[in-house]
What we know:
By secondary structure, the chain is mostly helical. Among the domains are: 51-80, no CATH class; 107-166, DNA polymerase, domain 1, CATH 1.10.150.280. The protein has helices spanning 2-33, 73-80, 114-117, 125-138, 155-161, and strands spanning 51-55, 63-67, 107-108, 165-166. The strands form 2 sheets. It has a two-stranded antiparallel sheet. The chain has a two-stranded parallel ribbon with strand order 3-4. The model has no long low-confidence stretch (mean pLDDT 81).
Amino acid sequence: MSSQLDRYWLFIIAFLLVSLVCGGIVLTLKQSSHHPVEISLSSAAPSQYQGEIYIGGAVANPGFYPVGEDATIEVLIQAAGPMSDADLSRIKIYVPKTDETQPAQRISLNLAEVWLLEALPGIGQGKAQAIVDYRNQHGPFRRIEDVLKVEGIGSGTLDKIKNLITVED
């Protein structure tokens, strides 16, 4: 019986030694093939863009606005005066090429106040007020040429301002 017990213990010891050697080999292989990966997160610095941005569309004061380090899209849009029907969930940004000329800033005959219309060549305070009065009485201008219906504005004045005005709302 003792020889059977010796074989039994011999078998258990051999099994444990084989298990220990195999486990050591597996751990060694896993450690050598598993190199740590270093991940570094860098904080992106905010853009230091300096220049101008054109805001048009459903705003009361379309035009170019200076962009500084504190400027956000929200601040710029508020400066342009969004209209009540402006869809602020869809904003279009256009970046021109270096050699591309900037479009001329146009004043909307349907949105501009008297002080802004006065900036047009050949339009003084009286004609500017006449444009606003005509718009209030007859509704929005449909074409640029409709400004000829305003008293005191002739074809010569229209020729001076036609590239500076628009009727878009």
